[in-house]
Amino acid sequence: MSGLLAGIEAGGTKFVLGIGTSPEAVTARHVIATRNPETTLDEAVRWLSSQGDIAALGIGSFGPVERDPARPRWGQILDTPKPGWAGCDIAGWFAERMEVPVGFDTDVTAAALAEYRYGAGRGKASLAYVTIGTGIGGSIMVDGRPLAGAGHLEMGHYYPQRTDSGGRFEGVCPYHGDCLEGLVSGPAIERRWGASLSELPADHEAHAIVAGYLAQLCHAISAFGAPEVIVLGGGVMKSPGLLKQVREASERIEGGYFPGRERRSIVSPALGEDAGIVGALTLAEEAMHGK
Amino acid sequence: MSGLLAGIEAGGTKFVLGIGTSPEAVTARHVIATRNPETTLDEAVRWLSSQGDIAALGIGSFGPVERDPARPRWGQILDTPKPGWAGCDIAGWFAERMEVPVGFDTDVTAAALAEYRYGAGRGKASLAYVTIGTGIGGSIMVDGRPLAGAGHLEMGHYYPQRTDSGGRFEGVCPYHGDCLEGLVSGPAIERRWGASLSELPADHEAHAIVAGYLAQLCHAISAFGAPEVIVLGGGVMKSPGLLKQVREASERIEGGYFPGRERRSIVSPALGEDAGIVGALTLAEEAMHGK
Questions:
Q1: I need a surface site. Which of A103, A120, A179, B251 has the fewest CB within 10 A?
Q2: Contact B147 A150 (CB under 8 A)
Q3: For residue A213, which residues of chain B lie inside 8 Å, CB to CB?
Q4: Fold match flag (B4-107+273-288 vs B120-270)
Q5: Does the keyword Coiled coil apply (chains A, B) (predicted)?
Q6: CATH number assigned to the domain covering B120-270
Q7: Contact criterion met (CB below 8 Å) for A217 and A131
Q8: Nearest CB neighbour to B162, from listed A162, A221, A260
């Protein structure tokens, strides 16, 4: 291979930039704040270009985005409430200024791709990756590729069954109220209980309620996608004991029903914080090979 | 092509047998009652073998089944409450007696395959097919293949949000209580309101309640799989006006959120009652070509 791989994990509050000789060999990284598109993208181009001879760039972006290369708006950010960013042609901007092949997908799909190839999905045919943080987003990898059809997945926005009817919490999602993201994203937990899950005492009801909803998410992922492994990442999952509670609740509500359930598991990310940038570099590598 | 395609839509109450010169050209069909495995399979072999020179057989079976050819139990019915059928090696039985290549999948995946290739999915890259009848089952087709990982999908068994909290109905699913199948399958509707949806007056609350749950199903299918078209079939969907109500409720709860929503639609099966047998013949054709 001649030249370096460049990756961008484009988030709503920060852009993580990375350089690697392969997706698994990150040699430099740099974080910049997300401001208006011009300032942010310009700063990203300058840092990346200063790192040496770049062969290809991969971008995992906050969404919603157009991820289908066959569509005219490919590489753009679609309707986002984030000021100035709706309609931003993020892939086109970099392609024009850096004159390299650009791979593009959602941030969560990039992370899913990384976990599938190099993390918790090694040796598995299918994987779901979900991040539970400021928002809730997920992606499913099957036979080497992300599942997508008309647009990308938005599993954070399905409506789970309400299991906490006493003192009903209306949810914080501006589009759906009490969809999953409205109920158990980081901001939902803060709004409801005035603290993050990690800050609440171990015997606080919040732990079981959040675990119950995430168990429903895993149940729904199994019902609609049947992946071999479900990876739960993001800030909320750092709360001690939460993964174990999710597994137990998941077992309970599943009722011993799903075919192949002995081959399914719920795990933490193997790449930790690196999934996003490793995924972006993987997208760069694919773009370099014309995939 | 030399020889005929044979297909079996293996259901819990009846087996539909079919013969075709291609998946779309069904030349003969025959229905037999589902009794114990030996009697039923034997009768099926006798009828199919009497129809001429069979080149390959396709089976779409009630489940749960092992659909992965790489697994030792491929072609078997797994844990079913149906007496005598758990562990029945249905594909093996036919392969041994008819000495032809056998294609095998769930009944709903066979129907999904048929709608995808020859029905509502023509020209689409992805499709979900759901049957709402005695049970609720669905399958998602992407890039020419059914989505599956560790076992097949079981979307009828996800838990929707309860929208009818007054006079709470506990649901009829023996595994999950008020999962979707427990709430709006044919038997659930009968149990709750003492009649089928078609038999209830047009202004009965049941119509809006059922439509609301099926709209949640469509919303969840979009969130977890994002297919271009969702096909809703099965006995319950024959209730006049239901599809329209589902579409309207789906629009409402979606909140204008999903990327690519202008390319998504909810439709009736284009093949009607034929989807199952056309799908079985398609599985036969694939088996003949060694897929």
A1: B251
A2: no
A3: none
A4: yes
A5: no
A6: 3.30.420.40
A7: no
A8: A162
